[in-house]
Write a structure and sequence with these properties.
The complex is a heterodimer. Chain A is of the alpha/beta class. Chain A is built from 10 helices and 24 strands. Chain A folds into 3 domains: about 180 residues, FAD/NAD(P)-binding domain (3-Layer(bba) Sandwich), CATH 3.50.50; about 110 residues, FAD/NAD(P)-binding domain, CATH 3.50.50.60; about 80 residues, Enolase-like, domain 1, CATH 3.30.390.30. By secondary structure, chain B is an alpha+beta fold. Chain B has one domain: Beta-grasp domain (Ubiquitin-like (UB roll), Roll). Classes of the chains: A alpha/beta, B alpha+beta. At the A-B interface, helix 8 and helix 9 of A face helix 1 and helix 2 of B.
């Protein structure tokens, strides 16, 4: 049998694996199967430049059509895998076609969590994951009326910024008592709360969304726990994502908040790998497991899977990092924020906590764990190096504004 | 269409046609020029699209913004002619542009 490598999911991680397979010299057949009808593209601009209308579609594409031909990668778009049979090493597509594999990568990503509320299936309730979602959302940015955004995570806040720039009235409803509560500490949350309020966003923290008032199949108002009704023209839901792991569950693979893999992205089945938003992997650096939703994670893990499938053993041990653009502010974060109740957790703020540029350095004891840099890329890049090298840092020196970041290395 | 020449560390040259309006990073990725990772896809967030701009083109390539400048400061072996290639937009004025690739992306 030919050594056929099959990849389910033509997104950031799946494409990267295909690229890395070829870079590692694998010259057998590679098939990339994607449910969407577009060439693999990057998602971050969908809530930023592309949503604003400042970036053309072809600039979203991760590789041009010619790439797939020249690299001899078979791209099957508009194709959905509905089952994996591990015993016969085959997958079945919707429509009935069966493809066999020698090695398989599952890179199906993490679609948005749905809002479990009555009326949330109305035609003007939007989610944002795909190019099509972004196109639909862009259309509603041109319509009058308030947009209610459910959830103050990155996606909700990025869309709020674009909507405000487009002149729309925006209400953001967040259940927690601060924004970005799963990703950053209080100082950074505060900064972004002030930023959005300063731009005219009606930001409600600790908000309880109870339901919607619908008319003719459309939401006309969002209803809060205290009885208040917020009239609106559209709703965007950004309450997180959940790994698309049904295929793995059905195939009997170990699944627990994502598909369970080792540091080389391999599942317990030696013929199957998983990478990107879908995978739950061990971090040698931190000595614990993660499931991350970020481009750098998809790239690094996709690379690891590709190289290992090609027979070049590789370990994924990169530090997590992320960025977000809101208004004229760029947040770059690196490392892993220790839980708020960690003993000896403390932070050092460089700069004025209310004004960019600033950076927040979070420690457990004398160990630097994460850096959040706001319009201060130097702090981000320096933090990345210091965390990776486990450099002991003189906290006093770091806190002194006169200290040059470079002198910390 | 304006042309860009990318020169790898080992001297290999890649000459590509770049549409006006695309970045020097995008033209490299589209044309399979190795050595530019561009992890953030041009968001000026990753510093993995570092190039050295040929002296003759430095001025025409435009000025660095503050963000770019401080990112480059932490790139692998930054020099005076270092740029993030995602921040240089191609135009007819840049027809013939020559950039060299660093040994690593930071
Ligand atoms: C709006 C938005 C903004 C973002 N902004 C940032 C940012 O600023 N920075 C950052 O680091 N990250 C950002 N992210 C996250 C980042 O885009 C993801 O982490 C990344 O795309 C994950 O890659 P992936 O390959 O795991 O999944 P995806 O890129 O989602 O690819 C998975 C693909 O698999 C396909 N698929 C699923 N099931 C099947 C099936 N059964 N058969 C065939 N195909 C299937 C899906 O259709 C999809 O195309 C953002 C995400 C979104 C949605
Ligand atoms: S591509 Fe990331 S900074 Fe240029």
């Amino acid at each position: 049998m030919t050594h056929h490598i099959l990849i389910i999911g033509a997104g950031q991680a799946g494409l990267q694996a295909a690229i890395s397979l070829r870079q590692a010299g694998f010259d057998g057949p590679v098939t990339l199967i994607g449910a969407e009808d577009t060439l693999p593209y990057q998602r971050p601009p969908l809530s930023k430049a592309y949503l604003k209308g400042e970036m053309a579609l072809d600039r979203l594409l991760l590789r041009p059509d010619a790439f797939f031909q020249s690299q001899n990668i078979t791209l099957r778009l508009n194709s959905v895998v509905e089952g994996i049979d591990r015993a016969s090493q085959t997958v079945t597509l919707v429509g009935g076609e069966t493809l066999s594999y020698h090695k398989l990568l599952i890179a199906t990503g993490a679609p948005p969590r749905r809002l479990p509320l009555e009326g949330a299936d109305a035609s003007n309730v939007y989610y944002l994951r795909t190019l099509k979602d972004s196109d639909k959302l862009r259309n509603i940015l041109e319509v009058d009326g308030r947009i209610v955004i459910v959830g103050a995570g990155y996606i909700g806040l990025e869309v709020a910024a674009v909507a405000r720039a487009a002149g729309r009235d925006v209400t953001v409803l967040e259940m927690a008592d601060r924004v970005l509560s799963r990703m950053v500490g209080n100082t950074v949350s505060n900064f972004f709360q002030n930023l959005h309020r300063g731009h005219g966003v009606d930001l409600r923290l600790g908000a309880q969304l109870c339901g919607f008032t619908n008319k003719g199949g459309r939401v006309v108002a969002a209803r809060l726990g205290d009885g208040e009704e917020i009239p609106c023209a559209a709703v965007l839901v950004g309450i997180g994502a959940a790994p698309d792991q049904g295929l793995a569950v059905d195939a009997g693979l170990k699944v627990e908040n994502g598909i369970w893999v080792d540091e080389s992205a391999r599942t317990e089945d030696p013929a199957i790998w998983a990478a990107g938003d879908i995978s739950n992997f061990p971090s040698p650096f931190y000595g614990c497991r993660f499931r991350l939703e970020s481009v750098p994670n998809a790239i690094e893990q996709g690379k690891t899977a590709g190289l290992t499938m090609a027979g070049k053993e590789h370990i994924y041990d990169a530090l997590p990092w992320f960025w977000s653009d809101q208004y004229d502010v760029k947040l770059q974060t690196v490392g892993c924020l220790p839980p708020a109740d960690s003993a000896n957790r403390h932070e050092i703020v460089r700069g004025d906590a209310a004004r960019a540029p600033l950076s927040v350095w979070t420690f457990v004891g004398d160990e630097l764990r994460s850096v959040d840099a706001i319009n201060e890329p130097a702090a981000f890049l320096m933090g990345k190096r210091l965390i990776a090298a486990r450099t002991k840092i003189d906290a006093k020196k770091l806190a002194d504004p006169a200290t040059e970041l470079k002198s910390l290395m | 269409m304006p042309k860009i020449t990318y020169i790898e560390q080992n001297g290999t040259e890649h000459v590509v046609d770049a549409e006006a309006g695309v970045s020097v990073m995008e033209a490299a990725v589209k044309n399979m020029v190795p050595g530019i990772d561009a992890d953030c896809g041009g968001a000026c967030a990753c510093a993995t699209c570092h190039v050295y701009v040929d002296a003759a083109w430095l001025e025409k390539a435009g000025k660095k913004e503050n963000m770019e400048e401080s990112m480059l400061d932490f790139a692998y072996e930054p020099k005076d002619n270092s740029r993030l290639s995602c921040q240089i937009t191609m135009s007819d004025a840049l027809d013939g542009l020559i950039v060299r690739l660093p040994e690593f992306q930071g």
